[in-house]
Amino acid sequence: MKITAFKGLRPVKEKVEKIASRPYDVLNSEEAREEAKDNPDSFLNVVKPEITLPMDIDPYSAQVYQAGKKNFEQLLEQGTFFKDEKDCLYIYELVMDGRSQTGIVACAAVEDYLNDHIKKHELTRPDKEADRKNHVRVSMINAEPVFFAYKAVEKLDCIVEQIKSDDAEYSFIADDGVEHKLWVVKDDKLKNDIVNEFEKMPATYVADGHHRTAAAALVGNELKNENPTHVGSEEYNYFLAVHFPDNQLEIIDYNRVVKDLNGLDVESFLEAVSASFEVQKTGEQVSKPAYLHEIGMYLQGDWYSLTANVGTYDDNDPIGVLDVTILSNQILEPILNIHDLRTDKRIEFIGGIRGMEELERRVDSGEMAVAFAMYPVSMKQLMDIADGGLIMPPKVTWFEPKLRSGLVVHSLEN
């Protein structure tokens, strides 16, 4: 695998805590506007720039993408951001609830993505991919890093721990209680040792950020094809990523909510579901899945535990064993008439970090008709699927803690 150091665009130390924001895809526009309203330095103004425009603005309009570019340029002009003088790598540690994970911030190669050496496990939604491509194309920066995993390497662990023995460049605890630390790696030997270890790897894996990964790589490839003097060393040949060893990562549940019951009343819907599941009503007691092939369902104020009947899944099939596959095959497609999770507007996805309360809220408000709580997949399942060239359904994995945006930015311009 090819990774490279780069001249990062970074915030001045005294501003980093105010700048660092949650990533674009964990907040809707209204939530982002509220979160950034008293903080003009928030990086949300760059990654969700519609919040700096009138509330009725189309978030996918050209005006929004231009605003993101302008907002970042202002951070540079006012000295809030600066550019490192030499190519650097960066070490990024996050600590949540006493659990630490440490990644290597480097630029990944567009070529590795196009050649499938950077392995994917999910398909992307065309509208979301196009949105991120527009952000990258207009601003000419990778504003947010993508979240990659690699199979842990002991030598890399030792190098990272050596770097972490020095004081961090940035260190702060965000308002959600997650601690963030960043080290800047300028030493040529350390950089070369890290790059050389990655060269021995057959693959890395997209853990979180398939849309950002696709957008960054595709824009980079477009810029290559548009450049008649392309030589291969241009910055657009690379995109920003944080690479984590797999044994430090934890996947939590990624749940589903559906707007309607496809014309069925509650009784008919439950009867249809019971053909493929053992259905147990738990009422007000939340049914959070405790094991594989159990799905929690919230419907009209009541929780249900759904245990998939034998024969509705295939434990020998890396995709067929997944509970999201069972849900699609037994409920979403045949009962609710939802066949394309990437494009169907009747289904939405909610990260488990929001809790079961968020599923209840979305249904109780009348916005959604039914919610499904899923059992999380494992890192081994993710890597096995990716290694097999297989694709999970969309929105299966949710990683916590989330990377903060705005700590390091990569420019596509030399």
Q: What do these coordinates show?
A:
This protein is α+β, with helices and mostly antiparallel strands and 414 residues long. The protein has two domains: 3-251 and 400-411, no CATH class; 254-375, 2-Layer Sandwich (Conserved hypothetical protein from pyrococcus furiosus pfu- 392566-001, domain 2), CATH 3.30.1760. Helices cover 31% and strands 24% of the residues. Strands 1, 4, 5, 6, 8, 9, 10, 11 and 12 form a nine-stranded mixed β-sheet that branches. Strands 15-17-16-19-14-18 form a six-stranded antiparallel β-sheet, sandwiched between helices. α4 crosses α6 (126-139) and α6 packs across α9 (210-226).
Instruction: Give the N-to-C terminal Cα separation.
Output: 22 Å
Structural class computed from helices and strand pairing: alpha+beta
What gross morphology would you assign?
globular
Q: Which percent range fits the helix content?
A: 25-40%
The helix count comes to 13
How much of the sequence lies in strands comes to 15-25%
The largest β sheet comes out as: 9 strands, mixed
Mean pLDDT value: 95
Number of strands: 21
